[in-house]
Design brief:
alpha/beta; GMP Synthetase, Chain A, domain 3; about 40% helix; about 550 residues; 5-stranded antiparallel beta sheet; Rossmann fold; single chain; about 20% strand
């Protein structure tokens, strides 16, 4: 009898290919477009992967060569991604909406052997900014319509230490870095995510239905894609954000990945619609919201029970059905802190929001909420096999098989981030006795006042934004004697001052915000003040608004 040690262990790619073969006749990917939808079975996807592998095999590439993948989400993106890894190459997925000069900087950093683009416009932008670019190919050249079906070949063998991807970070304070992820990183993470989704689905013998709108080039989004392929789920891919709401309802998902921005918008939309509706629906909803908070605070009254009962019978089911459909078991949220009031809103109407915390360097995930045992405002416990602790300055340190081996071509920055096997996240946090973590700030975002006080700006900014719906707020004051704020949005000075007064009343003197400026220019991806996944580029914001910032301190000092 063959010993266990001689039995080859299936790589994550072997497992995904085996799942595709097992689900040969089952629709796994549904691509939505203006012309309708395209449903792809496991057999169809394997055939497309084979076409892409044949194309790559003819390009004279060697194991470890980089292949840049520059395209929006779609079925061809998925097939190309799998093909690149299956050929033993390293995939470099890039955000197709990012500015061409930034994309070129990343590609020059990783020196791809070829660039595969979704369309000619993307390719032309790259070439215009990089005339010496390596060969570029379009999806139309890779997936020839008349190509005969190719036999399914096993993926190239991968050791756990073999790099399979380089994913560039968003670069909140500077140029993005290429995070190298290995086959071992992916294998561990996919086992963890699939196991947590088993808990959510409670062993139901139905195909998971998942909706997806976040770019696959982001680490968390990519992990969700690969997890769905592994689980033989049906993944409906949105390609038009203007049709997000209707496509979300049509997909009738069991769960899907989100960023806080969308959930905040959904919550605001419900409030506005019920306010306009008026009458009994608005009365029930308003009273039920107050009753729900009373119940959480342990002071629920008999009338609260009546209002909540009415809302649970009439209002909340209608909201859930109109918003997302009847199949939903949970929303999954990551990439940035979620306002606790928004998480409580969805919990109130019967939709759990499960939070995930992680970084690209941790293969997207460190913690995941446990279905049925999550705590609003926290991001769940560390996943299986992962160690987490805090350092003296409350920085979160992580160790485990999910930790990346290093940054591409950046040995010094790798050395700065990894010490004795522990990855220094740059995030501040705390863990409670139940093992659930809370993210409290960001080390490099700390504002050190002239008095020596250290202030994490995120919590104060969130409190102000909760009182100024639709506004964006960034605190400044490094090396100064007090904090100030740059505010964008449809806000007037009286509203801003009222919000400041309310927040300042709850803070010690050194955390109080003493001045503000309102700007008509919002922080956006297009103007370069937000990263590709919506995080603030604080250093760039400070430079862009330097004049306004200097004015705030000059006025106060003059007074």
């Amino acid at each position: 009898m063959e010993s266990a040690r001689n039995i080859p262990i299936m790589s994550f790619l072997d497992q995904i290919f085996a799942s595709l073969e097992t689900s040969a006749d089952r629709a796994l990917l549904v691509g939505l477009s203006d012309s309708g939808h395209e449903a792809i079975t496991g057999h169809d996807l394997l055939n497309r992967v084979a076409q892409a592998r044949a194309f790559l095999a003819g390009r004279n590439l060697g194991k470890g060569d980089r292949c840049a993948l520059l395209a929006p989400n779609g079925i061809d993106w998925v097939a190309m991604d799998l093909a690149i890894m299956a050929e033993g190459l390293i995939v470099v997925p890039l955000y197709s909406r990012q500015a061409a000069p930034e994309l070129v900087t990343m590609m020059k950093d990783c020196s791809p052997s070829i660039i595969v683009c979704g369309d000619a416009a993307l390719r032309d932008e790259v070439v215009a900014n990089w005339p010496e670019a390596p060969p570029q190919f379009l999806f139309d050249e890779v997936f020839t319509q008349n190509a005969p079906p190719s036999p399914v070949a096993s993926p190239a063998p991968h050791d756990d230490s073999d790099p399979v991807a380089i994913i560039y970070t968003s670069g909140t304070s500077g140029e993005g870095k290429g995070v190298v992820l290995t086959a071992g990183n992916l294998a561990h993470m996919l086992a963890c995510t699939s196991g947590r989704l088993d808990q959510l689905m409670q062993g139901q013998a139905v195909q998971d239905k998942v909706f997806h709108y976040l770019p696959f080039c982001f680490a968390g989004s990519w992990i969700m894609l690969l997890t769905c392929l592994l689980r033989q789920s049906q993944l409906t891919i949105n390609t038009d954000l203007t049709k997000l709401a209707e496509q979300m309802r049509a997909a009738a998902p069991h769960y899907f990945l989100n960023v806080p921005q969308l959930l905040e918008r959904m919550r605001k939309g419900v409030d506005e619609q019920l306010w306009k509706a008026g009458g009994l629906p608005r009365a029930i909803y308003s009273h039920a919201k107050s009753a729900y908070m009373h119940a959480r605070e342990g002071r629920k009254t008999f009338s609260d029970s009546i209002w909540l009962g009415l809302a649970n019978a009439i209002i909340f089911p209608a909201i859930r059905k109109k918003m997302i459909g009847s199949n939903l078991k949970a929303l999954i949220c990551g990439s940035a802190p979620l306002n606790v009031e928004t998480q409580l809103f969805f919990t109130m109407i019967g939709i759990p929001v499960l939070q995930v915390y992680g970084l690209t360097e941790t293969t997207a995930i460190c913690t995941m909420d446990v279905p049925g045992r999550f705590e609003p405002g926290r991001v769940g416990p560390a996943i299986v096999g992962i160690e987490m602790k805090v350092s003296e300055n409350q920085e979160i340190l992580v160790r485990g098989p999910n930790i990346f081996p290093g940054y591409w071509n950046r040995p010094q920055e790798t050395q700065n981030a990894l010490h004795d096997g522990w990855f220094h996240t740059g995030d501040q946090g705390e863990v409670n006795p139940a093992g659930n973590w809370k993210i409290t700030g960001r080390i490099k975002n700390l504002i050190i006042l002239g008095s020596g006080h250290n202030v994490a700006p995120e919590g104060i900014e969130e409190e102000m934004e909760s009182r100024l719906p639709g506004a964006q707020i960034v605190l400044v004051g490094n090396g100064r004697s007090y904090l100030s704020a740059v505010i964008t949005g449809s806000v007037n000075a009286d509203q801003a001052q009222a919000a400041l007064d309310a927040v300042n009343a709850t803070l010690p003197h050194y955390k109080q915000v003493r001045a503000f400026r309102i700007s008509a220019e919002p922080f956006t991806i297009d103007n370069g003040l937000l990263t590709a996944n919506g995080k603030l580029k604080r250093d760039l914001i400070a430079r862009r608004f330097q004049t306004e910032i200097e004015e705030m301190y000059a006025i106060k000092q003059a007074v």
